[in-house]
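Hello,

Our lab assistant flagged a job as stuck in the queue for most of the afternoon. It eventually completed. Since we weren't sure the result was trustworthy after the delay, we are filing this so someone can double-check. Below is the sequence as submitted and the structure that was eventually returned. Let us know if re-running is recommended.
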Amino acid sequence: MRVTAAQPGRPALWLLDAPETAGRHGQLALHELDEAELERADAFRRPADRDRYVAAHIALRRLLAAYSGDAPRDLRFARADCPRCGAAHGRPVLAGRGPHFSLSHCRGAVLIGMAAAPVGVDVEPLPRSERVDVCAAALHPRERRELQGHPPEQRPAVFARFWARKEAYLKGTGVGVGGWTSEVYLGDAGPHALDRPAGWTVADVPLGGGRAAAAAIRGNAARPVLRRLPGRAVLVGGGVGDAPNQA
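-- returned structure --
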C-alpha cells in the first residue's frame, strides 16, 4: 500500500497493536529517532514502556515521511502556539510542510491520526471501577449525570469513552488536558444532551480489546479511515508501505 498525502475531509487513523512486542521480531529502527527521543526512551524504567514509546515514535516518523516525502530521520518537530496564552507550547507540528498529526498510546496500542486540519487522537484502557469513582470529578457535570445513569458494571467503559473524546479534542485544539476538562461537554447524544464544542468533529474509534478511542478533527470532517500497521512497520527493513488498506 502506498501512503498518499492527507486530503481535506478525509483524515486517516493508524493503529499499531502490541507495540511492546514488535522488537521481538527484528531490530527496531532506532536510528530514525532524534537525540531527544532516544534520551526520553532511555528514561523509562520499564522495558515495555520504553519499547512502546520507541515503536510509537518510529511509526509516527515513518508515516509522516510517507506523507511528506522526507526521510524519517530528517523530520523536525516544533510546537504550535497555545490557543490560551499564545506561547509556543501547543500541539506538536512538523517544522515545515506536512499534515497535521496526533499520537496516543497505552498498553497494547499506538494510535496515530493524520489530517489536513488540526487533529487529536486518544486511546485509553478501560479503568477499574474504583478509578472511575475517583476521576469522575474531572468530567463535565452533565457527563457525570450520564455516567451515573448507567449500571455500575458499565461505567468503566462509559468513562473511558467520554475521556477519550475529551482528550482527543483538547489535544486537537492544542490546549491539552488540564483543569478545564470539566468545562468541555463530550457526552453521549440524546434528547437532553448539551451541544458539543462548535467547529469540531469528534468521533469514537471502535478498537475493541478493552480499549476506548476517539478522534477529533477541526471542521466538518468525514469519518476517519482506520488502518492497521503490522509490527514489521517499525523494524529495520520494514515500513508503513507494508500496511494493509484498512483495519
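-- support follow-up --
The delay was a queue issue, not a problem with the job. The result is valid. The radius of gyration is 18 Å. Confidence is low (pLDDT under 50) at residues 4-9.
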